[in-house]
């Protein structure tokens, strides 16, 4: 009996001693989350404050007041609003009024240096064949000045002068011709450089092996002749060169109407010139060794790939 009472007292005392420890442990355990949550609340408070402050800063940036223009900037005109005034004394692109009143300008014909070809062209204002430069003529369709009056005797003499035997050439097939540059020299002697020109009258027509185009010869503001020039080509890359050669061919045909080198169409002149200045010879091609008959001038030789092997 005594042992039971003693054991009961021991158990009660042990339970009383253990109760404060459990309470302390529970209190510490409950306080621990509170201590950890406090920084989280502080961080959340700072983040919320930052988020709240950000729109305010943006709003302050977007609502920033625009700078006001100064009075002198507002009164200063923009370049596109400024009217550019012409210098005093000028009328468009013409000469000064004072100079025009005291020193009248000479005509175009008076400014042309006439010492080199004055014998061929009459530049007198009363009988000049020069057309007014300001007149606009569509030479692609116009026939202005055709057969209105003959050219001056000096120009006619330059156009109709007899051919020199040194000027005439012969092709290997026996056709006589005058180099195209000599047609241009004749026109320059008759009308002066710039006094004549070639005008296209049609588009370029390109065929499988030939190109052609119609051209007009205009001299001193007058239409003289119309002719179609043509030229063969053998490769598409040679079309531009053939087009330019067709222009020279048309020039030769137009000059025929002016009487330039008219002897080349005279059968008697052709036979006489061949007999006196040309020879037909047998030649051999250096690559294929074929022989054929070709013409040449007596004072010239055949060029490669032909080699003369005998005369006929």
Can you walk through the features of this model?
Among the domains are: 179-260, Enolase-like, domain 1, CATH 3.30.390.80; 265-311, no CATH class. The radius of gyration is 53 Å and the shape is elongated. The chain has helices spanning 2-62, 71-75, 97-102, 108-111, 153-159, 180-191, 239-257, 267-277; strands spanning 169-170, 176-177, 196-200, 205-206, 210-219, 222-232, 278-285, 291-297, 306-311. The protein is built from eight helices and nine strands. Helix 5 (153-159) packs antiparallel against helix 6. The model is unreliable at 22-35, 53-61 and 89-131 (pLDDT under 50). The protein has 312 residues and is of the alpha+beta class. Strand 1 and strand 2 form a beta hairpin. The strands form three sheets. Strands 3, 4, 5 and 6 form a four-stranded antiparallel β-sheet that branches. It has a three-stranded antiparallel β-sheet with strand order 8-7-9. A two-stranded antiparallel ribbon has the order 1-2. Keywords: DNA damage, DNA repair, DNA-binding, Mitochondrion, Mitochondrion nucleoid, Transit peptide. One of its GO terms (cellular component) is mitochondrial chromosome. Belongs to the MGM101 family. It is found in: Mitochondrion matrix, Mitochondrion nucleoid. Pfam families: Mgm101p.
Walk me through the topology:
Blueprint lengths: L1 H61 L8 H5 L21 H6 L5 H4 L41 H7 L9 E2 L5 E2 L2 H12 L4 E5 L4 E2 L3 E10 L2 E11 L6 H19 L9 H11 E8 L5 E7 L8 E6 L1
Antiparallel strand pairs: 1-2, 3-5, 4-5, 5-6, 7-8, 7-9
Helix pairs in contact: 5-6
């Amino acid at each position: 009996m005594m042992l039971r009472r003693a054991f009961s007292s021991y158990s009660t005392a042990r339970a009383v001693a253990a109760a404060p420890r459990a309470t302390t442990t529970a209190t510490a355990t409950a306080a621990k989350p509170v201590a950890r949550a406090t920084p989280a609340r502080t961080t959340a408070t700072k983040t919320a404050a930052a988020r709240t402050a950000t729109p305010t800063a943006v709003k302050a940036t977007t609502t920033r007041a625009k700078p006001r223009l100064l009075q002198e900037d507002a009164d200063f005109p923009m370049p596109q609003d400024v009217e550019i005034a012409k210098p005093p004394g000028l009328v468009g692109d013409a000469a000064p009024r004072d100079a025009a009143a005291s020193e009248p300008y000479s005509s175009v014909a008076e400014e042309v240096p006439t010492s080199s070809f004055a014998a061929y062209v009459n530049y007198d204002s009363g009988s000049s064949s020069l057309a007014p430069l300001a007149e606009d003529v569509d030479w692609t369709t116009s026939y202005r000045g055709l057969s209105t009056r003959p050219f001056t005797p000096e120009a006619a003499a330059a156009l109709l002068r007899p051919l020199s035997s040194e000027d005439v050439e012969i092709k290997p097939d026996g056709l006589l011709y005058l180099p195209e540059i000599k047609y241009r020299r004749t026109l320059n002697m008759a009308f002066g450089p710039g006094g004549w020109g070639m005008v296209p009258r049609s588009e370029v027509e390109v065929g499988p092996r030939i190109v052609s185009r119609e051209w007009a010869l205009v001299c001193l503001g007058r239409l003289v002749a119309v002719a179609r020039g043509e030229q063969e080509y053998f490769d598409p890359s040679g079309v531009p060169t053939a087009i330019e050669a067709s222009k020279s061919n048309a020039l030769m045909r137009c000059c025929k109407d002016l009487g330039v080198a008219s002897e080349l169409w005279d059968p008697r002149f052709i036979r006489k010139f061949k007999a006196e200045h040309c020879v037909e010879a047998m030649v051999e091609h250096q690559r294929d060794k074929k022989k054929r008959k070709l013409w040449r001038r007596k004072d010239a030789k055949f060029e490669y790939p032909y080699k003369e092997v005998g005369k006929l």
